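Table S2 (continued). Query chain:
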Amino acid sequence: MTFQHLLRRSNFPQRQFPHLRYVQQAGGRLPDVFIKEFLAAQPHVRYFTMYGATEATARLSYLPPERLTDKLGSIGRGIPGVELKVVNEAGAEVKPSEVGEIVAWGGNISPGYVNEPEANAEKFTNGSLRTGDMATVDDDGYIYIVDRKNDFIKSYGNRVSSQEVEACVLEMKDVVSAAAIGLPDPIRGEAIRVFAVRKAKSTLTEEEIIQHCMRRLARYMVPKEIIFAQSLPTNQHGKIIKSELRKEA
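Corresponding output:
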């Protein structure tokens, strides 16, 4: 969320920082459009995309700046001492373009949660961490997150990545942040609702966003409605809490 606000709610893109040499972005995956905007604003900066989890002392993988162009959107590969695999429900590694869950091994993995045996049984197995992030890999072993396991939306019988819908909405320069959720719908199965925060004084309309999505996405991925908000609920790490949006809906 920090990068979104810097790029679209401040004068950061117009300012120069000659002494800024390195930047790392971690936590939730930053949509490609923001990475491009950051690099355009500060082309001299070495930008590291990183991925991690609280249960793994915050870091699991990184993408070096040299690979940003040809591996844009990837979280890279495991940091030294960490092994990452993307596995299917049977525990076998997925083939390129197949979707599976990221599982991590390493000395930085927590032994588990205190006094939470059910959660431990779900998340920790034989020293590994099941991250809950669904992803694909390419032929070089670079990992690309598709969505959180619990955030996929079932629309017209199709499995939709909420992050892909959000990335499309965020292509519109007046949108600062966005979150897509699915709501029960008698025709669609789940209707896609997007909560969006606009720039101050923006006149961007719901119809303009929906029309943009119709041009860029498959029909079953297009949001049914856009709800404009002043802000979105986030946790202490700045990640949007979609469970709160579902409660509100």
